[in-house]
Specification:
Helix content is 48%, strand content 19%. By secondary structure, the chain is α/β, with parallel strands linked by helices. It has a seven-stranded mixed β-sheet with strand order 1-2-9-6-5-3-4. A hairpin with a 2-residue loop joins strand 7 (146-151) and strand 8. Helix 6 runs parallel beside helix 10 (268-285) and helix 9 (251-261) crosses helix 10 (268-285). It is globular. The N and C termini lie far apart (44 Å). Bound molecules: nicotinamide-adenine-dinucleotide and zinc ion.
């Protein structure tokens, strides 16, 4: 089973192809971009050990000369220093890279963001191809063109919009993913269901077992449905002036929990799960969402192994973090709240009392 989805962005439109074994057609896909004789495959050391050979062999078989550039796995590598090292390796490639070269990101969101950023700045912009290998990268970061690195002052503070020329998603890479990483991606899938597509929630509910077991056909369908949602949002609002903000559902409180806990002790997916639970509680309190709808999503998150409560959550410490969020306006916390399952709105009038109640709900 293979699925394909177009991301419509005028002259910068591109195709996302999804299937088991898709990595084997990387060479044909890159050669099909036209004029590409050289590629640099950027990958973290863990993913490279598992999948780089397959990517490079496929490129070579299509007549694309490919070098491999690796960096240590993990968010700590998403820095200007690593980007600089990748650029050094890129410019050291022989024969020298020119404007026709393609940067291939093979890995999770860290690799995609880093390699995309390198592609955006190298020679003022090289073509860029995404081969995501985590569920989070499959359904979220590989589509949309946000690239960048972290700064000590905050995550993703340095970056550029640079759309890929194509995305190839091999769901056969998912079974080697650590279970916690899989669950992290599932939190974003539930998010997509709540913001746009109640039928996606049905699908995840019905197939939870097969999803957790990484069944290839079910994962192809799951990823395709999620990419379709992300693609539609990005096509409508590439630069996040409007509806792209809906993708932040669960992320206002989620990011603050992640920051407060210190990166690593709560995963992004766990934090987003908690953030969605809190946002839904707030929506129920406002009379926007029914209690049974919020309960249904909580049950689903629980079935996927995601957390619903966080004992001891300290609201006083959380509030200033939310107020200083990149997406807050003049200290006013901005939240995305569901009006039913499948539809959300941005709310700029959330009060401190409401936030406190939502945090209290999480603290249990
Ligand atoms: N650009 C965007 O729009 C966007 C959206 C969401 C998140 N992000 C970014 O994505 C990053 C998180 O991405 P992530 O969760 O994919 O993390 P990641 O890239 O660090 O991958 C997680 C871990 O899984 C390993 N791994 C990856 N694929 C594997 C596989 N198939 N088998 C075994 N191990 C594998 C990696 O080596 C790593 O250790 C964050 O930096 C975040 O800011 C970007
Ligand atoms: Zn997220």
């Amino acid at each position: 089973m293979e699925r394909a989805i177009n991301v419509e962005l005028g002259t910068r439109s591109y195709r996302v192809r999804i299937g088991a074994g898709a990595l084997g057609s990387l060479g044909a896909a890159v050669a099909g971009l036209g004029g590409a004789t050289a590629a640099a495959v950027v990958s973290d050391d863990r993913v490279a050990a598992l999948y780089a050979r397959r990517a490079i062999d496929s490129l070579a078989a299509s007549g694309v000369r490919a070098g491999l550039i690796t960096f240590p796995a993990g968010e700590a590598s998403k820095t200007l220093a690593t980007a600089s090292g990748v650029l050094d390796a890129l410019f050291a490639q022989r024969p020298a890279v020119d404007r026709s070269a393609v940067v291939v990101a093979l890995g999770g969101g860290v690799t995609g963001d880093l390699a995309g950023f390198v592609a955006a700045v190298a020679l003022r912009g090289l073509r860029f191809f995404q081969c995501p290998t985590t569920l989070l990268a499959d359904v979220d970061s590989s589509v949309g063109g946000k690239t960048g690195v972290d700064h000590p002052a905050g995550k993703n503070l340095i970056g550029a919009f640079h759309q890929p020329s194509g995305v190839l998603i091999d769901v056969a890479a998912l079974p080697t993913l650590p279970p916690a990483e899989l669950r992290g991606g599932l939190a974003e899938c539930v998010k997509h269901g709540v913001i746009r597509d109640e039928a996606l929630l049905d699908f995840i509910e019905r197939n939870a077992g097969a999803i957790l077991a990484c069944d290839a056909d079910v994962m192809t369908e799951l990823v395709a449905r999620n990419v379709a949602i992300k693609a539609a949002v990005v096509s409508a609002d590439e630069r996040e002036s409007g509806q792209r903000a809906h993708l932040n559902f669960g992320h206002t409180i989620g990011h603050a929990i992640e920051t407060l806990a210190g990166y690593g002790s709560v995963t992004h997916g766990q934090a987003v799960s908690l953030g969605m639970v809190a946002a839904m509680h707030l929506a129920v309190r406002r009379g926007l969402l029914g209690q049974c709808e919020a309960d249904r999503v909580e049950r689903l998150l629980g079935a996927l192994g995601l957390p619903l409560r966080r004992a001891g959550l300290d609201f006083a410490a959380l509030l200033p973090i939310m107020r200083h969020d990149k997406k807050a306006r003049a200290g006013q916390v901005r939240m995305v709240l569901p009006s039913r399952l499948g539809a959300v709105d941005v709310h700029d009038d959330v009060t401190t009392d409401e936030l406190s109640a939502a945090a209290g709900y999480l603290a249990g």
